[in-house]
Amino acid sequence: MKKDRKVVLDTETTGMNFTGCFYENHRIIEIGAVEIINNHITGNNFHSYIFPERSIDKNAFKIHGISSNFLSCKPKFSEIIVPFLTYLDNSDLIIHNAKFDIGFINYELSMLKLNVKNISENCNIIDTLSMARKIFPGKKNTLDSLCTRYKIDITNRTIHSAIYDAKLLAKVYIFMTNFQKSLPIFDNNVFENYLSKKAYSKHARSKILLATEHESISHKNYLKYMMNISGKCIWLTE
User: Fold this and answer.
1) Given Cys at both, which of 46, 150, 163, 184 links 33, Cβ 3.0 to 4.6 Å?
2) How far apart are CA 41 and CA 54, in angstroms?
3) Stronger pLDDT, 186 or 38, i.e. the higher one
């Protein structure tokens, strides 16, 4: 069977530039990536903190809690680029709000002045934010909102973390892609097989409660009673 390899990716940065390109003059400080093969999370992850060679904005620090002092002994982007690009090779990239992360990665690549194409030219980019807006139009589609919607535990997500958020997004993506498939409701055998797939959450299965014999008898007696008092003909089925 052909291996369907996808990489779920997230980054944390020193901040954002709100005048022009949001990535210009800011740097990536953490990359987290999670591998999915044939719709299963493999555990083969890529994770690295990065020394950005500049300070971190106060507002950015409030979001991810990563300090300049912590990063002072971490590798530069140029030192992790080879293993990073090797990890991404032969995969689709899954990113929430892809424009943000792809912009930062391409900016980092441009500063290295290497003969490396933009990430979007090397990888097929799948933006889960765009997907979510089509599946849940008019609703809030942040990562937190999607996790809550799919009953994915986010109690430990007190601050942003590239690797932790990539792990959450990997679970979200599996739910999103399974839910997009049409349900074969007219074929019970196929439907049962669909529900039995591991990727389909137990939370998505609806429990069907059938009426007891006593409840069925009570219901029929009620219909007979209503027929008598209304004078209308009500057909009863056995």
Assistant:
1) 46
2) 34
3) 38
Q: Are 156 and 144 spatial neighbours (Cβ–Cβ below 8 Å)?
A: no
CA 81 to chain centre: 25
Report the interhelical angle of 128-135 vs 162-179 (nearest 10°).
Answer: 40
Number of residues assigned to the chain: 238
- Verify whether residue 160 is a known catalytic residue: yes
Q: What is the pTM of this model?
A: 0.73
pLDDT of residue 178: 85
Write down all domains in the chain, each with its CATH number in brackets: 5-179 (3.30.420.10), 209-238 (no CATH)
Relative orientation angle of helices 77-88 and 98-112, to the nearest 10 degrees: 120
Asked if 146 contacts 8 with a C-beta cutoff of 8 angstroms, the reply is no
Instruction: Quote the tokens at residue 95.
Output: 């990113």
Say which of 26, 40, 160, 203 is annotated catalytic: 160
Closest CA to 105 of 125, 134, 91: 125
Is 165 assigned a ligand-binding role in the annotation? Answer: yes
Instruction: Please state the rounded mean pLDDT for residues 168-196.
Output: 62
| 89 belongs to an annotated ligand binding site | no
Is 64 known as a binding-site position?
yes
Question: What b/e sequence results for 121-133 when a residue is b if at least 16 CB atoms lie within 10 Å of its CB, and e otherwise?
Answer: eebebbbbbebbe
